[in-house]
Write a structure and sequence with these properties.
Chain lengths: 275, 342
């Protein structure tokens, strides 16, 4: 009897929790008919924001991959004094309030900022430009990728790297033929997370780049800007972002299946621990 | 054929590895785990950089700290077979073997009878197959030196015999300087011309396998080769004979010279077993309880008191040896070796 009661409590708690999590998402889609949502997507505010969002996010991703991958490999494969400090530094933006990140970026790149003054002397202005959006996205999203990449690189058996070297491959060939293929699942997962985080970036962007349509207004900023103007547009953008986020999450789950099944070690579980 | 000369110092976690080796055929490095055997291979392959020393294959110098010369692993012609083989899990057998050189991959697949596995991934292979892939991959590099790290330890006892015979034949045929790391004296004796015993980073003894059995320089080498080692105090009787009072009380006579704390080394095959006290030419007789009887192929290892003896299966049957009974172990004074104990 008590057992049945306990089971019922578990069940009820689960129903409440799942309903609570699903309700806002369902609400976005059912608040107005789907036809009207789709119509709103051709609104210039939406298309402009979509272009700004994807352009800045993709450029930021390119930089994250280009600089983040070697950084992660260095931090994963070398032991040096100050290494944990570097890792902590990489992780800090993850826990930083977005508004603080925005202020930090202004203080660094703003007109009277740390680098900003020399930049403006050279005729370069960063705040409230599309470059600022890209920088903000890169700042908040790169830690997700680097952290995940470090974890992915750390699971590679050092003997495989050594084997590659004794078989006549230099460091570059070893990286591209052994290290990269063996860590691709973890890297893709990190990249997907960073992409999703970058696309949803709001706080740092609005402080550092403002919300100027066609220039710095990304999808989340457009939601905020249209909130009091046209609620249907905000719903349409929200629905779009829900779909993109879901797609990222599903592709993330698929990359875990895509892990090389020939992996001898049990590391495929370790490399998925990106929380 | 070029000779491999390695003479270097390498600090390890708890001691310093100090080694001078000259290898032109197969040398086995044996010793307890953590003695620095694998580090020797890693230093020769260039995976670690000794702060002092010189490593060269013939005129080809790989390391010379005096001249600040250090060649990277990919610039040394070594074929290193890793302990767990370190096959690339994301590549097929053919891609693994072709990693160092595409041209001759198929030739090596055929030679090691793994052509039929060419498209398989390492995870799908048995231990023996993996070992063959690892050796084929290392040889496809065209190495001037072969380094084998515990090539047989990952195999079960059943597979091991066959793989060892194959390896023996291969090493003979290649006739390259080869260093083989093992913790198994039998493997070392079967595969190597010379055996180096490494303990705590130092070469304790460097000799042929049979010399190691005949003349172990110390207690570690003796017990490593599978000998009995009985501790006791030695006292000279006369010019020809030493008597050793064992810690267990018995007296053992030896034709070797010894004084003070010694270890008496007796090989199991030098010990005869009887159920009754016999009077033959053997001077040493130890009575004891039969503590274990274990069959090893056509031989039987019997433990009597402190001594392990090895007899044929048929004499074990005839003597009706069983645990718990009493038996006499006898061995000649000339069959004993005395080694100093610290």
């Amino acid at each position: 009897m008590r057992k049945a009661l306990l089971a019922l409590l578990y069940f009820l708690a689960a129903v409440v929790a799942l309903a609570f999590l699903a309700l806002p998402i369902v609400a976005i889609f059912v608040h107005v008919p789907p036809g009207r949502l789709i119509d709103q997507l051709s609104n210039p505010v939406v298309t402009d924001a979509l272009i700004v969002s994807f352009k800045t996010t993709l450029i930021a991703q390119a930089f994250i991959l280009l600089f983040g991958t070697p950084t992660a490999y260095l931090l994963a494969s070398r032991r040096f004094p100050g290494r944990s400090l570097c890792v902590t530094l990489v992780e800090l933006p993850l826990v930083l309030p977005p508004a603080v990140a925005g202020i930090g970026l202004l203080a660094a790149f703003g007109r009277f900022g740390l680098l900003g003054s020399s930049l403006s002397a050279a005729g370069i202005t960063i705040p409230f430009t599309q470059t600022a959006v890209t920088i903000a996205v890169a700042f908040v999203a790169s830690p997700l990728y680097i952290r995940q990449a470090i974890a992915a690189f750390e699971t590679i058996d050092p003997n495989l790297v050594a084997a590659s070297r004794t078989l006549g491959a230099g460091p570059a060939r070893t990286f591209f033929r052994v290290i990269l293929p063996l860590s691709r699942g973890g890297l893709a997962a990190g990249e997907a997370l960073a992409f999703a985080r970058g696309l949803g970036e709001f706080g740092a962007t609005i402080m550092f780049a403002g919300s100027l349509q066609k220039v710095t207004q990304t999808l989340p900023l457009a939601i905020y800007a249209e909130f009091e103007v046209n609620f249907d547009v905000t719903l349409a953008i929200s629905a779009l972002l829900v779909l993109i986020s879901a797609a990222v999450l599903i592709s993330l789950k698929l990359t875990s299946l895509w892990q090389p099944s020939e992996q001898i070690s049990s590391s495929r579980f370790a490399r998925l621990s990106w929380s | 054929m070029a000779t491999l000369r390695a003479d270097f110092i390498l600090p390890l976690r708890s001691f310093e590895l100090e080694l001078a080796l000259e290898v032109d055929r197969t040398v086995a490095l044996v010793g307890p785990s953590g003695a620095g055997k694998t580090s020797v291979l890693r230093a020769i392959a260039g995976l670690v950089r000794p702060p002092r020393g010189r490593i060269a294959l013939g005129d080809d110098v790989w390391l010379d700290t005096a001249r600040r010369l250090f060649r990277k692993p990919d610039e040394r012609r070594v074929g290193l077979v890793f302990q767990e083989y370190a096959l690339f899990p994301h590549l097929t057998v053919r891609q693994n073997v072709a990693y160092a050189g595409r041209e001759r991959a198929d030739e090596y697949l055929e030679r090691f009878r793994i052509s039929h596995l060419a498209d398989a991934r390492p995870a799908a292979l048995s231990g023996g197959e993996r070992q063959r892939v690892a050796v084929a991959r290392a040889l496809a590099r065209g190495p001037g030196v072969i380094l084998l790290d515990e090539p047989l330890s990952a195999l079960d006892a059943h597979t091991k015999g066959a793989v060892r015979a194959e390896l023996q034949e291969l090493l003979q045929e290649l006739a390259l300087p080869t260093i083989l790391v093992t913790h198994d004296f039998e493997d070392a004796a079967a595969l190597a011309d010379l055996v180096g015993v490494i303990v705590d980073g130092h070469l304790r003894q460097f000799a042929t396998p049979s010399e190691l059995v005949d003349r172990p320089t110390d207690a570690f080498v003796a017990s490593f080769t599978g000998a009995n080692l009985l501790r006791g105090k030695a006292r000279r009787l006369d010019d020809d004979m030493t008597v050793v009072q064992l810690e267990t009380g018995e007296l053992v006579y030896s034709t070797e010279w010894g004084e003070g704390d010694v270890g008496v080394v007796i090989y199991p095959w030098e010990v005869s077993i009887g159920r009754l006290q016999q009077h033959d030419s053997a001077m040493n007789l130890i009575q004891g309880e039969i503590r274990s009887v274990a069959a090893l192929g056509n031989r039987v290892r019997v433990r009597i008191g402190p001594i392990t003896a090895e007899v044929t299966a048929s004499s074990a049957d005839k003597l009706e040896l069983a645990r718990g009974g009493t038996a006499f172990a006898s061995f000649k004074a000339t069959g004993t070796r005395l080694v100093p104990l610290a």
